Amino acid sequence: MVNHKIIAKNLNLWYGNSPCLKNINISIPENAVTAIMGPSGCGKSTLLRVFNRLNDLIDGTRITGEVLLDEQDIYKDMKDVFSLRKKVGMVFQKVNPFPKTIFENVVYGLKIHGWKDKAKIEKQVQKSIIDVGLWDEVKDCLHKNAFSLSGGQQQRLCIARAIAIEPEVVLFDEPCSSLDPISTAKIEQLMEELKEKYTIIIVTHNLQQAARVSDYTAFMLLGELIEFSETNQMFTTPKDKRTENYLTGKFG
Amino acid sequence: MKKNFIERLLPIFALLTWVFLFGIMLILFIEGTPIFKSVPIFRFIFGRHWYPVHEPPEFGILPLICGSLMVTVGALIIAIPFGLGCAIYLSEIANRAVREVVKPFIEMLAGVPSVVYGFFGMVLLAPMIQKIFHLSIGLTAFTASVILGVMALPTVASIAEDAISSVPKALREASFALGANQWETITRVVVPAAKSGIFAAIILGIGRAIGETMTVLMIAGCCAVITPNFFKPVRPMTATIAAEMGEAPMGSMHYHALFAIGLVLFLITIGLSLIAERFKER
Question: Looking at this predicted complex, what is its ipTM?
């Protein structure tokens, strides 16, 4: 029996008056990679940003329904987003290291979460950078600006930054869309390793990527969750006609 | 054919700005440098007495430089915190409705003629300061600093606001996603990311304050002495030129000395502009 890390029930979301997510019910399995795919504008990124409440930043967002993280309602039971975002980290589509040094980038979240002990901080930074497989490449230039790295290295640095504060869930919002195939392969490989420790949700519009990296796949269309099942099952025997059409390239 | 003609004309207009700049510089040199024949540069710049119509006259502009520096520093002490506060509030905290109302007002503040500021300072601020601090005269370096600060504020605020709002949204999101609150995001990510633009804003603010003439002429008190006291009248370089150019006989030592002050001022502001450009490019 799989354990469910995040459960959304009857989730609706509006930007102003336009509905963006319609009655979503989904249970995200723990320590697995769940892909959310669908054509542009289907609400997949919005759904991802529900899980760390990043939609709160946008004026006029309205949400109904429940989102549970370990049986705690993240919109009602959790008083602040601070403790939620400690547990739910995020990696973005636009590679976005801070204009600081490599070291400072990883330290940032630790400082926010009150880490003071210098030795512990250094150890944690090293551990995070090792975990994303970047250590050998940057160990001699930790105090260089993060922009001196290549795009793929920068994205791995962003992953290190996210996992440094030891979240339980890591959200990936099209993390490879601006990367070359080799960097993409490295990041996909990394996700495979990270799922031992974290629950991973990845938004992608790349079908092959969803098929390669995920254990479960959700297919969304126009704000609705059309189908959610094990990835193998969805790619071989989709239940819904619309999923089949999307997978066979009839639209999207 | 017609388009060709206009196309050929446009670079000439662009070149004209160079011609004007070099023309100004040339005239300042030609008219300013003769004073150095009778007063050595060192004594001109570091001389402590400015008595241009005494017999014999003395042309030391140190009190004037100090006057300019005092009112400029005073203005910055006001313009930097208020300008940056304004910029941060507008780009990070205010909602769109507030921003759209407030921003044009800041730009309008920049459009108020300086003589109006001077008038305001003379009639309203100076008597107030005189009363509050029990001074014999309200026209002081402090008075001028306050008004110049208000004048430099829109420059600092609007350029800093541009710099801050051009920080990519992705950086703010990354910070929020790590659990940072708005204040942490502003102080640790947004402002450091915009720092070169903010430096440029400050330097252009300095340029605005140091080059201002009419206001300081009206409210700085125009007393050419070196004093560390902000509640004494001072006489900035600009005010000296404006006040005395009408009385200095053309070609006289006094006349050349005033041009030389203009040259010093010009070199300072050009230097500041160049520094600001450097920062903006980063």
Answer: 0.92
| pTM of the complete model | 0.83
Q: In a 3-state reduction of DSSP, which class is residue A173?
A: strand
pLDDT value of position A252:
59
Is residue B149 pLDDT above 70, yes or no?
yes
Measured CB to CB, residues of chain B less than 8 Å from chain A are: 95-96, 168, 170-181, 184, 188-189, 192-193
C-alpha A43/C-alpha B57 separation (Å) is 80
Which of B170, B171, B180 lies closest to A112 in CB terms? Answer: B180
The answer to whether residue A232 sits within a structural domain is: yes
Most A CBs within 10 Å, among B164, B175, B178, B182, to test the A interface: B178
Decide if pLDDT at B186 tops 80: yes
Cα B189 to Cα A86: distance, rounded to the nearest angstrom:
18
- Least CA distance to B181: which residue of chain A? A82
Instruction: State which residues form the domain around B8.
Output: 2-32
Q: Is residue A252 assigned to a domain?
A: no
CATH number at residue B119: 1.10.3720.10
Count: domains in chain B: 2
Among A52, A98, A111, select the one facing B177 at the smallest CB separation.
A52
Among B205, B174, B207, B224, which residue's Cα sits nearest to residue B57? Answer: B224
Q: Is B54 found in the same domain as B129? A: yes
Give A78-87 pLDDT, tens digit per residue: 778 888 999 9
Q: Is residue B4 predicted with pLDDT exceeding 90?
A: no
Q: How confident is the model at residue B61 (pLDDT cuts 50, 70, 90)?
A: very high
Residue B1's pLDDT band, with cuts at 50, 70 and 90, is low
User: Are B117 and B215 within 8 A, CB to CB?
Assistant: yes
- Residue A62: is its pLDDT beyond 80? yes
Q: Do B192 and A165 touch (CB under 8 A)?
A: no
Let me know: does A213 contact A188? Beta carbons within 8 Å.
Answer: yes
Backbone angles phi, psi at A166, to 5 degrees: 50, 65
Put simply, the answer to whether B168 touches A94 (Cβ < 8 Å) is yes
How many domains is chain A built from?
1
Across the interface, which of A86, A100, A158 has its CB nearest the CB of B179? A86
Taking alpha carbons only, the member of A48, A50, A49, A52 closest to residue A85 is A52
CB pairs under 8 A between A and B: 65
| Residues of the domain holding A142 | 29-54+80-219+226-247
Let me know if residue A214 belongs to a domain: yes
CA of A52: which chain B residue's CA is closest?
Answer: B177
Instruction: Among A57, A96, A113, select the one facing B168 at the smallest CB separation.
Output: A96
Q: What percent of chain A is modeled with pLDDT above 90?
A: 78
